[in-house]
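User: Assemble these into one structure.

Assistant: Restating your components, then the assembled model:
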Amino acid sequence: MSLLVVGSVAFDSIETPDGSADRVLGGSASYFSYVASFFTKPRLVGVVGEDFPEQNRHLLEARGVDMTGLTTQPGKTFYWKGRYHQDMNTRDTLEVQLNVFGTFDPVLPESFRDSKHIFLANAAPSVQAKVLDQVTAPSLVVADTMDLWIEIAKPDLLALLPRLDGLSINDSEAKLLTGESNLVRAGHAVRRMGPKFVLLKKGEHGAILFSEEGTFVVPAFPSPDVLDPTGAGDSFAGGVMGYLATRPEVVPGHPEWGTQLRRAMAYGTVIASMTVEGFGLDRLTRTSRQEIDSRLEAYRHMLSL
Amino acid sequence: MSLLVVGSVAFDSIETPDGSADRVLGGSASYFSYVASFFTKPRLVGVVGEDFPEQNRHLLEARGVDMTGLTTQPGKTFYWKGRYHQDMNTRDTLEVQLNVFGTFDPVLPESFRDSKHIFLANAAPSVQAKVLDQVTAPSLVVADTMDLWIEIAKPDLLALLPRLDGLSINDSEAKLLTGESNLVRAGHAVRRMGPKFVLLKKGEHGAILFSEEGTFVVPAFPSPDVLDPTGAGDSFAGGVMGYLATRPEVVPGHPEWGTQLRRAMAYGTVIASMTVEGFGLDRLTRTSRQEIDSRLEAYRHMLSL
């Protein structure tokens, strides 16, 4: 079990119609590793500034996250401020200060290079490729991306895709990348660009998996208590990869792969539904593997036909 | 098995990014009854004008639809013309001619008054109530509605809701009716207004069922071949009610009710996914109960966790 995540660690200021949070711990690697810690002891690579408080580091360390790869650089930590609209599905970015993350050039600690499960959180595809170059023998590589890279670094992204087992991408990005307006066609088209499977995320509507084993629908867990959608996608990925890392021998080609991946997506779904029930990581700090498993059972029941 | 639908029979002219259809048979009662005919012999009540061609009537009659309740009045048939946007989720109404449907005052043939399963397709709630008054002993009543009635006839709608077993309503309408911005809260709030269960439709994302037995998610079948979304909602309802009518003794309160309703929604989902694969009723005229059952199996597989 050696799950590596490389991504952002940030301060988020969040406004929603129902409340707000100021400078709480955020960033893709924070959400991902916190969630994955319910299954394994993830390794985190990221960068923060001198303003990053010890208590944030402790929050992740206390969950068993290996923080050897979190470096502190002169300057300030990545800062994002956003405001969600009434429907919670759309948001405006009010402020972005990349700070030390703007020149993030991840160098893996020697002890991380043997990692088997790799999650390349959203970053420039060239940076994601450099991370991959530093891993000696990965067995399952999944990356996330965003519209910005499709627009300004498409050749780099296209070069990265065949090196991936899985790509996590949202609906509008998949359409942008492929030029397909039908979501199902877009998902298949992304897969033809290289990754063995595509996790197509649809926000509050869940996700669709496109894989060699077929197409699978993964509806969201319908929570009545959505407070802050920030981090839902990275929590989903953290649940998927965290669960997969518990059976490291089950990779594409293994007879149990299809079943295992679907079970992993169910975990990702229910944990993401918890993340959004609080601001930042708050709700996750108040859950347990037992509650997660119990929500997983409720989810299975909701889907029974 | 006596399933009654009261609703519109229309000519639709449809434009999509990939094609168009001119004056094809449409309307809620047409889609509903055609779909339901794969399970039972539905009874249709509606009105058309003198321009309604015999071949349209035959299309439904040949499927076993009882057309005793389709009256012809002086004037023209209801006409709708619409254009779908690139994403197929939104559309503009280009033209509406209510014609004879504008004064639709449904009178049930004597032979229809003993109907047990009733679907009140979208119409003014006062008209829906008058239909219900004419049925002697219904065992399951489901109605559809739309934003227009919430805006101009809310008191009538609120008076109708407690008389229903089920209400079919889409996401934005549920939010409008309840003032809730969270879809799950909105669904529960609609149910508190009277109906025993609420089918909350989310277009290409499927539906959520709110019922005494709990909340169930019903994702859409991911079709790569969406040509024309017209009629998807009424097809869904036709599949649900058609299947339910095959076991008329299973109504709310019956021990098998929850299971049966979920199975019915699965049928509604896969049939709706076929409807949208052609213009108007075209795709449905080329399917069979066997193909429907085979897609149902594919759907179950796609949802297996």
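The longest helix of chain B spans residues 257-275.
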